[in-house]
Design goal:
176 residues, mainly alpha, 6 helices
């Protein structure tokens, strides 16, 4: 009878280990789904920001008579960038856009331009919210990758630590 008790004990322990593995693996999967969701939201909002900046080119050209308006946007049309790089490029393009707003106050009287400027402000706040959600999710995910016992599941499943969504402006602000 003792050998049967030992076998049952081993089977119970093995089942508990498998259930714990499955539970942690499922938590990883939930975080991966949340990360993908956040990335998709960031991507669509960045595309919306790009489209708004792209629409503003002709308006700025017509109102200011400048020829090389938002050249960065024109170059971005043909470039293949990830969301991190795309965001940085759009930040620079938005800064150029803002310089036209400051340099040419008559742009503020153009209704289409005002609508684009308002849309850009909305997308900026949306992007910031999605970045925060993304970074919070990455924090949860990275904690699981680094802490015991979930790091064992991460090692077996080949999950690696992921990068946070950074902002170029933050790096400028830090350098005093």
């Amino acid at each position: 009878m003792e050998i049967y008790e030992l076998i049952i004990f081993i089977v119970i322990i093995a089942c508990l280990i498998i259930m714990a593995f499955i539970s942690v693996y499922n938590r990883f999967q939930i975080n991966v789904i949340r990360i993908n969701e956040a990335e998709a939201n960031i991507d669509s909002t960045l595309r919306k920001k790009f489209d708004l900046l792209n629409k503003s080119i002709n308006i700025i050209k017509n109102e200011t008579k400048e020829k090389n308006v938002l050249d960065k946007i024109k170059k971005l049309r043909s470039m293949k960038l990830n969301n991190f790089e795309f965001d940085r490029e759009l930040i620079e393009a938005k800064n150029e856009f803002d310089s036209y707003v400051n340099k040419y106050p008559e742009l503020k009287t153009n209704e289409l331009f005002v609508n684009i400027n308002y849309g850009l402000a909305e997308t900026e706040s949306e992007i910031e919210a999605f970045k925060k959600y993304y970074n919070d999710t990455i924090t949860d995910y990275n904690k699981m990758v680094k802490t015991f016992p979930s790091n064992i599941v991460a090692l077996i499943s080949r999950y690696k630590k992921r990068a946070y969504f950074d902002k170029k402006e933050d790096k400028k602000d830090i350098q005093i």
